[in-house]
Design a protein that fits this description.
Elements: E1 4-10, H1 18-32, H2 45-63, H3 67-97, H4 102-108, E2 112-119, E3 124-128, E4 135-139, E5 147-153, E6 160-161, E7 169-172, E8 180-189, E9 192-193, E10 200-203
Antiparallel strand pairs: 1-2, 3-4, 4-7, 5-6, 5-8, 8-9, 8-10
Helix pairs in contact: 1-2, 2-3, 3-4
Length: 205
């Protein structure tokens, strides 16, 4: 199999400096607005902006002091970062669909690009299928006998089991368009069950 170069979108650090994080996130929203590369951002940009505005208000209160205000700011920061993470997943999916333009697409969203890495194949990958609401999952093949156990989530907190397979590929149907889905995998061999793989994320079409 030939090597594949992957371009990875990177978000600003949410734990570094909240005002600087807000500035970077607002720039991303601004650059994605009316950007022809992003027809229908998920979540919607106005929803992301509302979350960032709430974070800015709580950050101003936290700067004035008070333990309770800092705790509230931290809650709002996590909520805003979750929206930004979903938005990054949308940008990443868009870039993955056009590998020859992937780096330009990520930069046009105001996001940084991690140093491209070359791999022969991801342990688990997800791509759009040939019908709306369909995603094809693919795993790295292991020596037989091996069972592949798949799970799906929309928040990476609650996971739903998918049908087990003995093949490296499986198809998931009935997904809701413009919704962010995460998938993970564990394998079972004579040696026992593996840990769950790192989730792969895709925006359903």
């Amino acid at each position: 199999m030939s090597a594949i170069t992957t371009v990875i979108a990177v978000l600003p650090d949410a734990t570094d400096n909240v005002p600087r994080y807000l500035t970077s996130c607002h720039l991303i929203v601004s650059m994605m607005t009316d950007n022809k590369n992003f027809a229908a951002p998920t979540p919607p940009l106005d929803e992301v902006s509302e979350s960032l505005d709430a974070l800015r208000a709580d950050e101003e209160l936290a700067q004035k002091g008070g333990k309770g205000m800092v705790k509230q700011r931290d809650v709002t920061l996590r909520q805003a970062h979750r929206k930004m993470t979903m938005l990054k997943a949308y940008v990443q999916t868009t870039a993955n669909d056009e590998p020859e333009r992937a780096e330009a697409i990520v930069h046009s969203a105001g996001m940084n690009v991690a140093k491209p890495r070359t791999r022969t194949k991801l342990p688990t990958s997800a791509k759009h299928g040939d019908a709306p609401g369909r995603v094809v999952l693919d795993a790295k093949a292991l020596p037989k006998p091996v069972q592949y156990r798949w799970q799906m989530s929309t928040d990476q907190e609650t996971w739903t089991d998918l049908p087990e397979t003995y093949a490296t590929k499986t198809t998931v149907d009935g997904l809701v368009p413009a919704t962010v889905y995460s998938f993970r995998l564990r394998t079972v061999t004579r040696s026992g069950a593996s840990d769950w793989s790192s989730p792969v994320t895709i925006v359903a079409q």
